[in-house]
Amino acid sequence: MRRDIFQAIADPTRRAIITLIALQAMTPNAIADNFHTTRQAVSKHLRILTECELVKQEQKGREIYYTLEIDKMKEIDNWMEQFRKIWETRFSQLDNLLSTLKKNKK
Amino acid sequence: MAGNNLIFNFTVDESTNAVLITREFDAELSLVWDAFTKQEILDQWWAPKPLLSKTKIMNFEVGGRRFYAMVWPEGQEYWGLKKYTLIDPKTNIKWLSSFTDKDENINTELPTSEWELNFSEQNGPDGNRRTIVSIVIKNKSLADIKMIIEMGFKEGFTMALNELENLLPTLNK
Q1: Which of A23, A25, A57, A105 could covalently link to A65 via disulfide, CB atoms 3.0 to 4.6 Å apart?
Q2: In the structure, how many helices (H) and strands (E) does chain B have?
Q3: Contacts of B112 (CB under 8 A, 6+ apart)
Q4: Interface contact B162, partner A, CB < 8 A
Q5: What pLDDT digit, counting tens, does each position of A42-57 carry?
């Protein structure tokens, strides 16, 4: 199943996981140590994040490490940047209009 | 970035699925309030060019609504409805925003968002009155924001905005 990246970051635990592994690659156990929840629950979150391609697994020796896919995180930024741009343009039009309205008032 | 050092903040709060926007305007509050609440002024700036904003019905009162279209240069119309749920004159407005068809039937498959706008006035560095508008757009999920952008603004739209931005300084000369 193809999941949406926005769904991935909608959950507070998944956002916390992202913040953790943004700093360094971590094993599932090391990640789970940071949460007061079961390892199964953390595994489920990691699976969703993997399906969204926000994290990827790397085998190092006997351990599996999770790392963050920075490019995928940028996809979220790109959407928000589009929305910001729309507002920026809207407001710059309002600036021009306000300046005209001010002149007409005088 | 806005000209004359006007504040513009745009952030997304992922824990509440909200978009937070703060913008300063070089004008007194009563004028900015009118620009947000009178249809003839609103229609002149609400739609980013080359779109046009066309308000069909507007009764600015609690329980009232603004029913309007964003019109593309090729003529397609995308209809939206804002229902006013709270009005505190020159201070605060709340509305519910939905997508509709041209007959004002709400499209329940598309996201509805909850808006709150706050207005305040202060002195600018030049002694002129400045108005700060802060807007909170609450969504059910962050994916809704993406859908709102996809619905209202076709692909390539922000690219066109970038071009417009490059063009503006030459037009003002």
Answers
A1: A25
A2: 4, 8
A3: B96, B97, B98, B106, B140
A4: yes
A5: 999 999 999 988 999 9
How far off is chain B from A67, nearest CA to CA, in Å? 21
**Peptide bond preceding B50: is omega within 30 degrees of 0, i.e. cis?**
yes
The Cα–Cα gap between A45 and A15 comes to 10
Token pair belonging to B2: 């806005």
CB contact under 8 A, B12 and A80: yes
**Residues of B in Cβ contact (< 8 Å) with A96:** 45
Closest in A6, A89, A95 to B25, CB measured: A95
Question: What integer pLDDT is reported at residue A11 of this predicted model?
Answer: 84
Closest chain A residue to B16, measured at CA: A10
Per-residue model confidence as pLDDT tens digits over B128-142:
899 999 999 999 888
Chain A residues with CB under 8 Å of B128 CB are none
Which domains, and CATH codes, for chain B?
A: 8-172 (3.30.530.20)
ipTM: 0.85
% pLDDT > 70, chain B: 85
B116-to-A17, B9, B21, B126, B171 alpha-carbon distances in Å: 31, 16, 10, 29, 34
Per-residue model confidence (pLDDT) at position B89: 97
Average pLDDT, chain A: 89
Pick the residue with more confidence: B123 or B15? B123
Which among A84, A85, A94 has the least Cβ separation from residue B45?
Answer: A94
Grouping H, G, I as helix, E, B as strand and the rest as coil, residue A54 is: coil
